Amino acid sequence: MSAITRPLNPNPSQLRPFDVRKDLNAVADLVETCFADTLDEDGRRYVDQMHAAARNPGYLRWAMSVAENVPMPFSGYVWEENGHLAGNLNLIPYKYQGKRCYLIANVAVDPAYRRKGIARSLTNSAIEHARKQGIDEIWLHVRSENEAAMILYQSLGFVERARRTTWEIKPRSQNRKVSQTNIETTDIGITRPQSRYWDQYRQWLRDLYPPELTWHQPFHLTALRPGFLGSVYRFFTGSHVRQWAAQRGQRHIGILSWQPHTNHADHLWLASSADDEGHVIAALLPVARRQLAKRRRILLDYPAGRAILALHDEGFRIQQTLIWMRLE
Questions:
Q1: What strand order describes the sheet that includes 15-17?
Q2: Which one of 43, 229, 245, 303 has the largest count of C-beta atoms within 10 Å of its C-beta?
Q3: Strand 137-143 and strand 99-109: pairing?
Q4: Coil, strand, or helix at residue 287?
Q5: pLDDT score recorded for residue 97
Q6: Single pTM value for the model
């Protein structure tokens, strides 16, 4: 599939396709300007990576050649005013369950040019492009506090499908004393996950981490499978996982998996039924914190509004909550 090659707006001097070779540096500046108040460590590193990529001609040539075939922000639309890049929208292609999809990302408008319909025009152009490409689904996500963006996307036909909170715990928080109270006063035991419970683990994981919301994360279901088949997959993919299971009597009620990542943070994947998650968190997270105390900060992605008190009690703090929306 070829990259976007022509504008959909009759005035190409304002609205035109994003060209990664010449626009990436300006887009990085725009993102930094527009989100200065909300850029966390992840966001700052992302902007730095964009600036670095913009200085690499070989990388830019490769990005242009694969713009519609890899899940990276290499295509989309920009808005120019008198030679100034005032607005941007990227389209990230990806696949799940055999479907071709787009994620709308990096929607940013220079504060001096807002309230002129630029974001609406960019989004409409992206939708029209996706339809012409025969794309099955279009998704986007927006921070929960950005009400203006939510209203805009709803007016264009996007419907909220999920809310996800990213929880964070930093190494200094992991090193604090871990209370044994919750574990000692319950009948929950800690054990290793067992392959005979995989069907149950897998159902919990699929419910909590649906593929349409986790394609961009280092989440691979098979890598979390205990037993021989999971170990073979991890061996050939170079994956490393540490896992703990919570057991009440003869029944497993939850599983916690830790995965290191090549970037700045590792990940936890927590899976249990909604009825048991508070007990599972109180039992498993202290064990994981003790064993991972000297590691980097850890992120946990979880449905918004669930297990808030339990996660706070274990030292986690909310980094952000994203509203995932799909064009209906």
A1: 15-17, 75-81, 84-96, 99-109, 137-143, 317-327, 158-169, 298-303, 266-272, 251-259, 242-248, 188-191
A2: 245
A3: parallel
A4: helix
A5: 80
A6: 0.86
